[in-house]
Fold these 2 entries.
Entry 1:
Amino acid sequence: MPYINVKITDEAVTNEQKKAIIQGCTQLMVDVLNKDPATTFVLIDEVSTDNWGIGFEQVRQLRLLASHSQ
Amino acid sequence: MPYINVKITDEAVTNEQKKAIIQGCTQLMVDVLNKDPATTFVLIDEVSTDNWGIGFEQVRQLRLLASHSQ
Amino acid sequence: MPYINVKITDEAVTNEQKKAIIQGCTQLMVDVLNKDPATTFVLIDEVSTDNWGIGFEQVRQLRLLASHSQ
Amino acid sequence: MPYINVKITDEAVTNEQKKAIIQGCTQLMVDVLNKDPATTFVLIDEVSTDNWGIGFEQVRQLRLLASHSQ
Amino acid sequence: MPYINVKITDEAVTNEQKKAIIQGCTQLMVDVLNKDPATTFVLIDEVSTDNWGIGFEQVRQLRLLASHSQ
Amino acid sequence: MPYINVKITDEAVTNEQKKAIIQGCTQLMVDVLNKDPATTFVLIDEVSTDNWGIGFEQVRQLRLLASHSQ
């Protein structure tokens, strides 16, 4: 009965990608721990790039810097 | 000083239902553990049915399958 | 398919109290939202009073102050 | 490699305030634990005042009561 | 820069299984979302079977019932 | 009424460091958002280096590699 919470930045994640994350995490629980998929939850949180910081900076700012340096 | 996080699918939860969840969880902490309501937090997360998986499937898909099979 | 995470301080919580929390939270989901108990998860985290702060203070310290002031 | 999750009510938090939270939490990890900012994550969740309860009440209701009593 | 939190019951999970969970979740983020592994965190919480409830029951109790019915 | 959850690796964190984290996070909420410390919670989770992965590796393994390369 695993519970998996995947937090990613909210950057145009497609429904196909969401399905792939749910299926991949669930399969991993089956393969590694022999868990029952029927009681395996996968929850995806899409977090605004304004609300996610790394290395003192908002991810939104890091994305801007990366696009300018190209 | 309990902290309770209730994650449910985002399916037309009413304000009355939210109040009932907050009151019920808080009362449970008072009744079972003699906690002070003034420092009991209840946070409700409403999660898109696209972003919640169970048994390899998005809940949105499970809802569709259930409605079709009726 | 709710997921409920209850965080409480690690202060001699009994097994009967844990059962009461699990049953009370699950019943609340049934009563308020008509959820299926078979896919309702309740997870209890017992947090050391050294690791929980409120009002600038560790709960351990608050407990000491409260016991001295009695 | 700390991970810090800051949950606050969704009440007109400005971008400058978000930056200050990210910078302050990251600096704290550097100062207190000598952590590397490059692998320090800060995630801010803005929670609706309908979905946050304290003392049996929604924060939205508490805000209304406070404004009326002024 | 994903953050993945895997909550499983504390039932003799081996170090090889933990490695497989970390590697599988990280690879999934690379494959599906093209994320950088260097800023992909995977955190595993092992939760006591006394502290995890499903269907009104502690998992410990469910395990006992399952073993008796065999 | 903020709630702050700080997850760090379980590597001999001292009680003084825990106090500094609690005080620093709480002060940040006061300074940046004018929050009331009396309803500001800070929870510290110390996570085993076996259970925290980054870049496909357990932190325990990364610590070993770092100590060998010195």
Entry 2:
Amino acid sequence: MSPVVGYSLDQLMELAGLAVAQAIYKTYPPESHPNVLFLVGPGNNGGDGLVACRHLKLLGYNPSYYYPKQNRKIPLFESLQTQLALFKIPEVKTSINDDGFKEVVLKADILVDSIFGFSFSPPIREPFGSIIDMLIRNEFDKPIVSVDIPSGWNVDEGPVHDISIQPSMLVSLTAPKPCSLRFTGIHYLGGRFISAEISKKYDITAPEYSGIDQVCRIN
Amino acid sequence: MSPVVGYSLDQLMELAGLAVAQAIYKTYPPESHPNVLFLVGPGNNGGDGLVACRHLKLLGYNPSYYYPKQNRKIPLFESLQTQLALFKIPEVKTSINDDGFKEVVLKADILVDSIFGFSFSPPIREPFGSIIDMLIRNEFDKPIVSVDIPSGWNVDEGPVHDISIQPSMLVSLTAPKPCSLRFTGIHYLGGRFISAEISKKYDITAPEYSGIDQVCRIN
């Protein structure tokens, strides 16, 4: 999620996370895909995931989240975890390096990649290298939903490494990033919070939302 | 809007205001009701209105707002106004006591009452007495949408004064307040942010939302 002039992080993340949850609902409804595992990084991309996780619970899913490096710098992140606890959404405590983690993944119907966002730059530190490797191998062939950009992709160039995450669905936030042209799966735009004037000023061309929808399908 | 455990005001107000905007869209679409005048009080009910005002702009309306007593205690309120300015949403500067105010009202297709909420208690201070009188007379017969509770109603008893606002639509937030049993117009519930456990704990019985909807029609 990009910072957008005039909003607080709380506001933006709330709308971004809501959009991610709604896009997941439209593609993988709770009847067929009730169990959603969020893989959460330490920055804003992770925060969007934590918000989406809560909204999915409200939409009838059984979400859980793995959040190995918790953000202690920004108080909002602690509040987001408090909210998840109030919703009785379980935090996965099994480490990616434990044998038991396979079981955790096996139980999930969808894996959400909210690890790194558009401002990520290498190197990838542990345990995120192992998490991304797991998503690249995707040995149980689960649908992977990436938030804003697939983790590890370069915001402009896309999958710069020989081996990169290939999500089944991408939810771009505010505007599709240049790398999304390299993405061929199900693509949604969410984060309906910039005015026509701001879009024009920053030369953002994006598909139009319809009605009260907070997400729109791109392809 | 009631305070809800674990959330920040920014988060709650964003979701509440979004719900108000969506309920307005469902009842009074922008094609037939493009011009919306928000009458904004100094507290959280007013803040919900300021957020809804911005979302209506994103939904294709031409909203404007009259906000005679601005909240200077809570920094969020100033941010909400900054956001409205960035969206080029006009603030009405004509006072309710000026002759020109009639023109302002005449141009509106909908009047939104986000003046006082559930915690209001008399006396009503100026200029809010005059604004509420105007809404009671409603001489141009405009649809009135009240946020959470009609301003001046008692949260339990409803329209305790002989003469009270009779809105055409009410958007209850989090849960319908007891006074809403006295309301016979179009009634929506919004503010989808409490878990089933919390609803049970506080004995909140409310209709169920469907799909990804952030509002549900009660009657």
